[in-house]
Design brief:
40% of the residues lie in helices and 19% in strands. It has 279 residues and is of the alpha/beta class. It holds the Pfam family PBP_like_2.
Length: 279
């Protein structure tokens, strides 16, 4: 009875099969997403991206250090140097004209915080104005108050000035006082507040939550800053975080922007002391 040999694959087919097997076994290349914005957004983006990667494990987050700031990030977005920007203020008309779609992500209370400062029942707006003008210079425990300022064009400074006509004048007066500490961005301001005994200056509840900084946050006009008082309108001072995409966003940027409007992202925002837009 004739013996029929089992046909063997050709050497070319065997090599192709091995190559295909090796390709399947290779880990997928990471897909980078370049994001920057206001300094306080950096730790928030990290927390949001960790949740996003549960659905997109090949995605990789790239954030410039230090953050580019709101204006710098919007310029970088328009120039194609980043894929998504998170400014900490409303976009100017000329900025909006150079990019694609944008939307408000969330808001968080803007707060006055201190390392070691003691002030029973917080500040009234008149008392805050006295501090910024240099008429009230000591805490309740007689420790000197060391103000930490932001540049006049920064959104935090503009919010402080919007608190009252007296505060508008007082903040300008503080900027002209010699020897004042000046934070160049959100993160540097937080560092100055944390490491200056008796400090007092602006930051956000969201950044404090994300960083774990142990600072005292004060009531203003008898109202404590929180997501509840922010939502109720009893604490009106806030910092808004927006999302901006280029005119032709990458597929990954589109996916991340869509995720940011999901229930899972909103849960991360609320845990991070941010009130999602529309909530």
């Amino acid at each position: 009875m004739p013996h029929h040999a089992t046909p063997r694959p050709s050497m070319g087919k065997a090599a192709a099969l091995l190559a295909l097997t090796a390709l399947i076994a290779q880990p997928a290349l990471a897909e980078p997403l370049r994001i920057s914005g206001t300094g306080s957004s950096a730790p928030l983006v990290t927390a949001l991206f960790e949740e996003f990667r549960k659905q997109h494990p090949d995605a990789e987050l790239l954030q410039p250090t230090p953050p580019l700031g709101s204006s710098g990030a919007l310029k970088a977005l328009a120039g194609g140097r980043i894929d998504l920007a998170l400014p900490g203020r409303a976009l100017k008309p000329d900025e909006a004209a150079r990019i694609g779609r944008h939307f408000v992500l969330a808001t968080t209370p803007l707060v006055l915080a201190s390392a070691g400062g003691q002030k029973k029942n917080g500040f009234t707006l008149d008392e805050l104005a006295a501090v910024y003008e240099g008429r009230q210079t000591r805490w309740d425990n007689d420790q000197p108050i060391r103000l930490v300022l932001r540049a006049s064009f920064e959104s935090d400074t503009q919010t402080l000035k919007s608190m009252s006509p007296m505060m508008a004048k007082a903040v300008d007066t503080a900027a002209r006082r010699p020897g004042m500490a000046l934070g160049q961005d959100d993160l540097e301001t937080l560092t100055l507040l944390t490491h200056s005994p008796g400090s007092l200056g602006p930051t956000t509840l969201g950044l404090l939550r994300a960083s774990g900084a142990r600072l005292t946050v004060f009531e203003i006009n008898g109202v404590a800053p929180s997501l509840a008082t922010l939502k109720e309108g009893r604490y009106p001072w806030r910092k808004e975080i927006s999302v901006a995409l280029p005119r032709q966003p990458s597929p990954l940027a589109d996916k991340f922007a869509a995720f940011l409007q999901s229930d899972k992202a909103h849960a991360v925002l609320q845990r991070s002391a941010y009130l999602p837009a529309g909530r």
